[in-house]
Amino acid sequence: MKEKKENNKAMQNTSGSCQNGNCSCGDGYQQTLNKKSDRRGMLKKLTMGLLTGAGMVNSACSITASDEDKEKSQLDWESFFQGNYQLMTEDEKKKTVERLERSYELNHGRHPDISAKGPEKDVLYGYAFNISKCRGYMDCVNACVQENNQDRDTQMQYIRIHEHKNGQINFELAEDNYFHEVPAEGHFYMGTQCFHCENPPCVKVCPVEATWKEKDGIVVVDYDWCIGCRYCMAACPYDGRRFNWQTPEVPEEEVNLNQHYLGNRLRKKGVMEKCTFCIQRSREGKNPACVEACPTGARIFGNLLDPNSEIRWVLANKKVFRLKEDLGTEPKFWYFMD
User: Fold this and answer.
1) pLDDT digits (tens, 9 = 90+) for 220-233
2) Which UniProt keywords are given for this protein, alphabetically ordered (predicted)?
3) Considering the entire predicted model, what is its pTM?
């Protein structure tokens, strides 16, 4: 009898599973089960059981898995249960960003610089578009695609340049995909993108609060919280939203490693995305990529709360207008002519 007990004890000590807590998920697994939790916590536990059966936990706990594979599985595990960015503490945001950076590094061998920088005090961003100067070159579109890691296969574009006939603004008749020399005689050009409305209808319809307006006026999306219902796409009167029908494909050598959590970090299939005024640039005091790339100076970006900013000068000295002002969305995107 004594010998049998000793054999059982030896088997427990040498077991290579979660029972002895030696695997990468052992302690966390036990702590999760022992915690008192609310309804959401209980759902997490139930889901955890299903995922265990599916193999996620088994991968992390496998005796034969390498340390790197275990770390990847652990990072995937944490990503699956990630909360809404709006509700995170600063420490949680920091850890989330570090996890994303490490995950990319493990999978691609390069280290991205992902920022979680928040809005600056006394900053409200606005944009102005000089119709007289735009020549339809689309340098802005190309710069935006590269800066914001947009899918190359589907040719996703946040910015659209519309070619109108002189004397009318009719987006139904405008040409968006022209393949001729520009500027074309008898035509003028207008760019559209997300207008970062003061009263954004897209935010109001989101059932999971995955999109919201920041204090500096930038309307953002938490890609990890988005469920891809596309209500926001339907609600936007300016065609400013884009949906990922497939996993975005960006050549590794073309990936922009200077990223922001709410901006140009790599997205996944089935989520919404849009222009963010290049939040990874604007919150560092730089112009969006489209502004910097415009060869004619048709695009103006700045702080609406700064009386000395160029955009404030435009609003004070030019005859400006906004699209669909009757809707009350208050877009922070103005058009004007010289």
Assistant:
1) 999 999 999 999 99
2) 4Fe-4S, Iron, Iron-sulfur, Metal-binding
3) 0.80
